[in-house]
Amino acid sequence: KTLKILPVALFSLIGGKRKYSRNDYATAFIATLGMIIYNFEDARNLNGENQLVGIVLLACSLFFDGWLGYEEDEVKMTHDVSAYYLMFTMSLVSSLVMLASCLLTGDFFGAISYVEQHPVYINYLLAYGIVSVAGITCIYAIVVRFGALISSIVTTTRKFLSI
């Protein structure tokens, strides 16, 4: 996942309306290279089990990360929407996709049943939701003000530093 910055940079470079400076692209490249070097030792210790499936899933994830960043920039540049509108529409779409996924797999009713049996988790879920909204608000403010590439650099660096 440390490569997430590169697809966002490539999508914005190839077709994006938002233009970034050479310094932004250099920062993206150097940050990605640094994280690859740091994680290289862990990668050498992996066994080959499920490696192909993992690579395919990772490639799909990276593609969609890049495409999503590109689309966010395109929507912002074309329609001049606010961070809150972006946040609402992306949350609505992802919530509908997750709801459909949970209903198809049967996990939805199991989760509801679990929370009914353990009501103490309602407070945890509410707290998680509030903290998530605060974090997402900051991320979308960065997307709207600085663009998807800078947001990708910030979020990937944050994840890297938290390891």
As a percent range, the share of strand residues is under 5%
In whole angstroms, the N-to-C terminal distance is 13 Å
* Large-scale geometry: globular
In helices, the fraction of residues equals: over 70%
Q: Number of DSSP helices?
A: 7
SSE succession: HHHHHHH
If you average the pLDDT, what whole number results? 81
State the major sheet: none
Radius of gyration: 18 Å
Strand count: 0
Verbal overview:
The protein has helices at residues 5-15, 22-44, 51-79, 83-105, 107-117, 120-146, 148-162. With 163 residues, it is an all-alpha fold. It contains 7 helices and no strands. The two termini are 13 Å apart. The radius of gyration is 18 Å and the shape is globular.
Outline:
The protein has seven helices and no strands.
What are the main properties of this structure?
mainly alpha; globular; 7 helices; 163 residues; 0% strand
Please specify the SSE layout and strand pairing.
Elements: H1 5-15, H2 22-44, H3 51-79, H4 83-105, H5 107-117, H6 120-146, H7 148-162
